[in-house]
Queue: 3 jobs
Job 1
Amino acid sequence: MNKYKNILVTGGAGFIGSHFIRHLLNKYSQIKVVNVDLLTYCGNLENVKDVAKNPRYKFYKADIGDHGAMLNILKKHNVDCVVNFAAESDNNKAVHSPTDFVKTNTFGTAVLLEAVRQCSLQASRQIRFHHISTCEVFGQLSLKSKSKFLETSPYKPRTPYNASKASGDLIVKSYFHTFSLPITISYCANNYGTHQFPEKVIPVFTLKAFKNEPLPVFKSSGNKREWIHVTDHCRAIDLILQKGIIGESYNIGTGLEKTITNIADDILTVLKKPKTLKKVIPDRPGHDSRYLLDSSKIRKLGWRPEIKWPTGLQETVQWYKNNKSWWEPLLSKSNAWSR
């Protein structure tokens, strides 16, 4: 049983947000979900096409930076919980248009928080606010380091994307300390799974391998990322909503690390393509060497990752193979790949 009845999911037409909406509607028969998404380049209603006719689901095309729109939606649907996925998230695009990332990830988060606070005051009830952050706000670890990022690790963002997310996090925390708004924050490792926009490394590599095109591997091919299947991430967020301590933050990670070369080789193996189908390209500016989260705090709540990398990657690659009609129209929107 979920303690919340009317959940607003922002960025719900995106990759992780759409999976979370599906998770809620499939798991809980009493929950109603409101999806707010501006449908920018990576927002795609095809991601939630399967739930669009569910009577417990409602979609609004709206900007989290539009205070009036957010306040009206919160009131109209008697929202008691907000889960904020809405974000610009591609490091490459942030290098070329950093202010767009500040607008959404920092200013947008602040406007949404204020709408939640005012609605809480007017309705004389507290609205829970869970904010989706990223491991990248903590900066980078050296490749040989034995350290892991804790929830209390200092913020050391190195790119415009990371900095905009860190700024949004700090505003979320300020609303807890200043206004007693019931917030929680989660920092997650790199996600993979179905419906991921084809700017990210796994879909990029997969689609290029389909066409026997070279897979672009950064020059710093030894840099590592921690990986988690999107379904395991959604389960973790759900658990934080149920058992998480108000005002606290939680790391969500698996401990599974992969280099860019590892990922390319694994995808080529799944598709039975030659390992020579790789091409080294220059590093992007501010390319972090490594992220790794200490997830012991959320594991104490009872969460464990369930989907193993070989199984999850096989299923993901197969989904892209079977859903050309989903990804082919999106290729024109994506001219970059990241992390």
Note: The chain has a mean pLDDT of 93.
Job 2
Amino acid sequence: MNILLLSNNAPNYHHFFKALVSLYARDGATVTVAVDSRFARRHNRLDELTFAPIHEFETYFVNHRTDPSVLARYADFNLNSALLSDFERAQVYGVWDTRADLDYFDRLKSALLSFFEEIFDRYSIDTVIYENVSNAFAHFALFVAQRRGAAYMGFTGSRLPGRFAITSDPLEDDATARNFEAIRSGALVPGPDVRHWAGEYLSRIETITPDYMKINGLDRISLFRRYFRRDRLAQLAALLRHIGDNRTDAFQIGNPLRTYWGLFSRNVGRRLRVSRVRRLYQQPVEGERFLLYPMHFHPEASTSILAGSFLDEYEVIRNIAFNLPEGVRLYVKDHISAWAYPTLDFYRRLRALPNVRLLPPEAPTKQLIKKSLAVITLTSTVGYEALLLKKRVFLYGRVFYEFHKGVTRIESPARLHELLMRHIDRPVDWDDAYNLDFVCAYYEATLPGTLNLLQGPEPAEKMASEVYAVLAALHGHEVKAAVTA
């Protein structure tokens, strides 16, 4: 097994992935590391992986000239779309120099493809290991992996408690759909334990919170607890070593000091506008007919990759507001992890729209789903939960539950009024048995374990051992289990 580990500045993720590939190397796999920048290499202590050669994209990119032939070879892939996730991050956090031009983006695409092609060819890579495809660095590695016939193992949490998933192409994540078709046809028969688990889960769906919402910590707005800690001093010292870095050579982190200042400033701005945002929230009106729209966190893959065409949520909400059937409101519920990050002007413009009520993040989501006519969403977990609560979902983006018969895809915003008029009052035409099979199909597409990539070294190593044991059992070979009690 020839593994390529991807690494970047995602906080703490490196603890889990370094521990995981160390277990693979111990059992005979060869490992190579591709890292986005010099900063991430040092910050993630990648040189501790003494068995693995390390390749820095930043160094490669500085000396790369655009190669039209490599762009032509991959012209059947949507290379420009794959840049959107990092473009959004760069805009939100002030990562890139504003002078980046069209030639820069062509050179970036060319460099990423050439960089990964050379690594794949030199080391005969057959497996890429990283999180789910969430940025351009990973997306271009996926393109080369697909062209070379290699596997992409993207580790990610799932909506099911105590289950995680391994995904490949985020836009072709059809494992649940294939399982569901197999269950319905009789080709796949979930065991009694799986059906029991799914039944218990459905019976408690109104009180269950997905694991990722419990561990991301993004709902905390305190600046003191976030920044005034001893470990932040060491981080500041590391950032100061990169004070003169170019803002575009390391395209994901830019100049680390400037980028972290952008992160800090964003959180300060959030804290300062909290009370004023609070005053703009409204409350539901009893007896009102409404669609529920859950806002998303930005920037993240669920929007920039899975719903990139609808990235501007104000534009999406405005289009809905002006295409609602008569007598129907739109309840826009703020996101618990993202509220007060947008500007006051954003919230005021939402409040000014006809037919829109702006709800606070702590508004009871499950109760709102049950009282709604339907949910309308980009890719939200709220859409998934609505289906389990037997409410229709109007869906803009791409997500694993899109095949469910309760989902209506929004292909053209220009035809939204017609779509809503035709489907909003349609009676539910799926039953408990359908939802049970749906959850079983999703369960079969996931693996046991709670994947928290934000943990420190010791719990990350324990988690990596547990995950490795699960993967070994899945692939039918033994490993030297390093799971601690």
Note: The CA atoms of residues 33 and 54 lie 5 Å apart.
Job 3
Amino acid sequence: HLSARAEARLRAALARWERSSVRAEALAWPLVRAEVPFFRRVDSPHGDYLEGAIDLLCTDGEGRRALVVDYKTGDAGLAPEEVRERHAMQAEFYAGVLLAEGFERVECAFVCVERDDPQAPGEPLVARYAFGA
């Protein structure tokens, strides 16, 4: 029940993701899981717990390295540096969850599925972060 405009937007985002190098990178990991839930105790004035789901979690066979892929829409008009800054806190949180679970190295890739990378037309803009050893 999407409008024609919304359907076109969705199809374009899916096509950009499907042909992307970051998708190929994710699929090369030994274990790839979508919508992986997490639950973490936090010290916050807004509550004691935070829960959610990681869009795509790729891990090695030993549970030492992980790649978090988070799909983003709505970053139109932001410079690549602004996109990176905008999602840094979320990347730190995801990494903290996984490092606390025993992972030694966590990489996060925030994939702007509606935007081309200005340096690589046809590829989505990706903000990357690395944590751990």
Note: The chain has a mean pLDDT of 92.
